[in-house]
Give the backbone structure.
Amino acid sequence: MTRGGLDRRHIVGELGMAISVAGDALHGRVEVTPEMFVPGTSCLRTSILAAFTDLLAGLLAGRVIGPRVPVTLDLAIDLYRPAAGLRHVEGVGQPVKAGRTVFVAGVDFIADGEPLATATASFMPVPDKSLRLPDSALLLERTQDETKRLEQPFADRAGCVRQEPGVALLVRSEEGLNSANTVNGGLIALAVEEAALSAAPGTTLTSLAMRYLRPARVGPLVATATGLGAIARVDVRDSGDDDRLTVRATTRTFL
């Protein structure tokens, strides 16, 4: 979930998703731009769909868990087809389970009128009860005119670089934090994607599953991919926090 919910200064906010409320669901719509592509392709990054999932599902979680801060436990997304040549993407987020300790939401994505992907994310209240969501986190609706747009490729804007095949580094930025003041889960998805794709150049991700094990507080984060064939395991460690494991992920590339 983005810091302050819909703060336009946030890196995820610059992805330009317009959001509207329809009953218990949230509808998001975004115009796809070249800054959102996997380098060297015309394919929308799967990590951007993961960031949209974290945003829509996190906002829904805030409606139930708030005023306490929801933190992401896990997130998984599967694409039905390569995300190439898209003009617009729409996402519909709906609650799946609203329990006392865990909230689960699903997000279905449609691109240019055709199904693109399906995703699920789960959340729990942050253990620190003194943390509270800002009022802006519960202001769910915004138009695309109210958003700032990416002016450089997503990885460049986020400060995510490929260090070597299978390894990507993500810096900690004030514009990339969530409401618990730790690194945004959608940006960690970018580091996972970059690590996996740097080990398999020329491909894009058909699936991405992440388990958030501990908050990423310090940074830089280092994502390391190991795998065989189309499947990779990616471990993300906080290099500024004794290299503690923060996320374990699994990715699969299109063949």
About this structure: The chain has one domain: 12-253.
